[in-house]
Amino acid sequence: MSISISELTFYAFGIFVLFLTPGPVWLAIISRSISSGLKGAAPLAAGVAIGDIIWPSLAIAGSAALAASYINFLLYLKYIAVIIFVILGINLIKDQNSNVKSQDIKFHEKSELAGFTAGLLVIIGNPKAALFYLGILPGFFNLTELTLIDCAAIALVSALIPFIGNLALAVMIEKSRAILKSPSAMKKLNTLSGCLLIFVGLLIFFDAYKSHL
Fold this sequence. Notes:
Elements: H1 5-19, H2 24-60, H3 64-69, H4 71-94, H5 100-124, H6 128-140, H7 148-179, H8 183-212
């Protein structure tokens, strides 16, 4: 490995600081945690983590031009993510008449794969991520001297820091959720959660629309 531990640690700190900036992924993690706890948020966080491995790897490989070539395809992926988030939100709001506990299980079982897919598509469907990594990575490493092990370590750090942060956020929300035991309180929280999911979808839609102009 040509990069030093101190360089990798400094990069990890930079990724952590960037993670602390709220965005659509934060809102999605919060809404999933409110409605289904850690079990509901973990698949989405895993999808985001996979995307966080892909983009820095492509950026390191000098594939920003490739990402630009496939920008229309990536735009379609982003619109698919919009549809998934909106459907999850609508279903969560629509099912408020069912038992809260059974609804929680139903939501988890039906949307585990959808949550993972949404998290993955949000990251993969954002070509700006490749350009972002292409912009910051030279500030931490000499890209011309990176070995395969270096690239793997950088990609792992890029995914692991946000993944741990997202899970920690989900755990905090889940513990707060345990305080609210009454069905009426949970129904209100689930309605809020559904609205947040729809809001995330709308944010992604408008971002995709702007980038298409």
